[in-house]
Amino acid sequence: MDSVLSVDRGGPAQPLLLAKNLRKHFPIPGGLLGRATRVVRAVDDLTLSVAKGETLGVVGESGCGKSTVARLLMRLIKPDRGTMILDGDPVDEPHGITVNELRRHVQMVFQDSYASLNPRLTIVETLAFAPKAHGLPHAEARGRSRDLLAKVGLEPDTFADRYPHELSGGQRQRVNIARALALRPRLVILDEAVSALDKSVEAQVLNMLVDLKDEFGLTYVFISHDLNVVQYLSDRVLVMYLGKIVEIGDVEAIYGKPQHPYTRALLSARPTMDPRRRTQEAPIQGDPPNPIDPPSGCRFRTRCPFAESVCAGTEPVLADTGKQSVACLMYVPGSGHSKAA
Amino acid sequence: MAIQSPSLDLTAGAGTGVRLTPVAITRGYWQSVARRLRRDPVTLVCGVVLLLVVASALAAPWLGLSDPYKTSMIRRLYPIGSPNFLLGTDELGRDMFSRLIYGGRLSLFMGVTPVVLALLIGGFLGITAGFLGGRVNMLIMRIMDVFYAFPSVLLAISLSGAMGAGAENTLLALTLVFIPPICRVSESVTTQVRGFDFVEAARASGAGTLTIVRVHVLGNVLGPILVYATSLISVAIILAAGLSFLGLGVKPPEPEWGLMLNTLRQAIYVNPVLAALPGVMIFITSICFNLMSDGLRAAMDVKA
Ligand SMILES: Nc1ncnc2c1ncn2[C@@H]1O[C@H](COP(=O)(O)OP(=O)(O)O)[C@@H](O)[C@H]1O
Ligand code: SF4
Ligand SMILES: [Mg+2]
Fold first, then answer.
1. Nearest bound ligand to the CA of residue A319
2. Does any CB of chain B come closer than 8 Å to the CB of residue A173?
3. Does A316 sit in the ligand 2 pocket, CB within 6 Å?
4. Which domains does chain A have, with CATH numbers?
5. What is the ipTM of this complex?
6. CB A82 within 8 A of CB A23
7. pLDDT (tens digit, 0 to 9) for every residue of chain B, 304 residues total?
8. What is the helix (H) or strand (E) element at residue B32, kind and residue range?
9. Top CATH class, B27-300
10. Which of A65, A291, B95, B210 has the fewest Cβ atoms within 10 Å of its own Cβ atom?
11. How far is the C-alpha of A8 from the C-alpha of A88, rounded, in Å?
12. pTM for the complete prediction?
């Protein structure tokens, strides 16, 4: 069942996954005759690349579109526009690979460990489902499932024939991780995969994720609202605000020298034990605006302490500032912002 | 960052190769449902009563009962407890006990068949609408809403009236009456299950729609749909009996509880208890189906 795609094709320098101008607006039903007149701008013209072997952290407040990005990258939902390229192959295009082939190589772990498991299936049945759906014989699929259980630290003889409700949250999430690995993917998207776990269990699962990544040569997109966990795990970090990327760069740059006012506010608001790390930055004010009618120009301007009139008229685009890319007019020379060079 | 070859072989390190798991003794879902049911006396009693009613109806010809069609002008309206006629005789001198047992055949048949047919059709439509969503859902559910707008009694009476009296037309009318509610329940549970992450994960695995429905959807929606259908049997029995009572269903001289209730009307002042017996059968049977449905629902509502 392994296609040629399993093998690294473009070499280490070619991004594993490239997404260009992804957009997803959810229609809100309720207009005349149930026709949607307004939309939730969940993801707006988002471009990102995931390098082979890296862990790309994705942070942002709840509702900013992180899960929508994950679903778009897996093509669980169809983007309104935008293109995706998996290791050189365009997805869902005439000369590219199909959505099903993409899903073989990109897998996902969801936040809710219980809702992600079919309560009527035993653990081994859940794990064997995908390989069987891809044509692996029953016995082989079960054998592979048991091996996977061992890989995620669950004794196969004990757990294979149990039902999800007989497992703890941490054990269930290990099963979900095993399921994501069952098709031997190259990229695993972890959407708040450890967020619901107790701190001690979370640490164990995180360590396991690190080990699995090495063992199977995986690439991770790690979505979380927990900035500390993202810092611990990620090579690069992407900060989202209302469906857009506001800052992206190496983890050291983002955490050490955040540039976008939103990133700075996020980082200063996080709980820290270290008094030296407490910055003077004003914590972020209020709730994010409604993604149905995001503010014009810079979407962060309603909460930004540096907002000026120019921010309402001009939409900042991501611009390289050396170690990271930032979407803020303060970093665009000649933008008209008083702090711009 | 080191780039490793992503060609993985998870089974390679297993050494022993493929191991087949023995069929383990698991505390499966249905086992825990059965255990809960065993601890529920009301459901148990209802189940036993229904079993008796159904078994006696099915076995009626072999129970050595007297002929339920044999009339006699001399022994009309014998009271309950008469020698040879345990439950007396009806207005045409026929053995009430025999007719009540035989009556279960038609009454149960008329109650269960439309629900089963409606379950097949409405269940299919509802699960399809729920799983596919979008326009298909819209189309199916709007059509159902049209039927749903009428109270079931009115719909059954008008359909039967339009098609004419008779058992087949009653079955058809009742089937049509029950398709919309079953479709609605099926649609709503399927929509709910479809939204669960495990269905999303199954889609992410690249499995086909039919495989996903078979493995991940059916197992989770059939239970609630069946429970709901069980509760409809009681309604169907009452409606079928009601149609017969109104002369729109089974025709005389068939023994059928609703029809018996009708023909015994004239005897209500002579022997009210006797005249009420078919009603008692309808009541007991339908309430048992209803309580059993409740019991099943409770037993199947297993949360982690
Ligand atoms: N299927 C959907 N239909 C309509 N709106 C949706 C849907 N999924 C997400 N949204 C909306 O899109 C926005 C982004 O949601 P989501 O991607 O789940 O954010 P996050 O994962 O960052 O919390 C939210 O405003 C949410 O209400
Ligand atoms: S563009 Fe203006 S409003 Fe937006 S973050 Fe920069 S300074 Fe603040
Ligand atoms: Mg989310």
1. 2
2. no
3. yes
4. 13-120+163-331 (3.40.50.300)
5. 0.84
6. yes
7. 343 333 333 333 333 333 333 333 445 677 778 888 888 999 999 999 999 999 999 998 998 888 888 888 888 888 888 888 888 888 888 999 999 999 999 999 999 999 999 999 999 999 999 999 999 999 999 999 988 888 888 888 888 889 888 888 889 999 999 999 999 999 999 999 998 999 999 999 989 899 999 999 998 999 899 989 988 998 898 898 888 888 888 888 889 998 898 888 888 888 888 889 999 999 999 999 999 988 988 888 755 3
8. helix B29-38
9. mainly alpha
10. B210
11. 10
12. 0.82
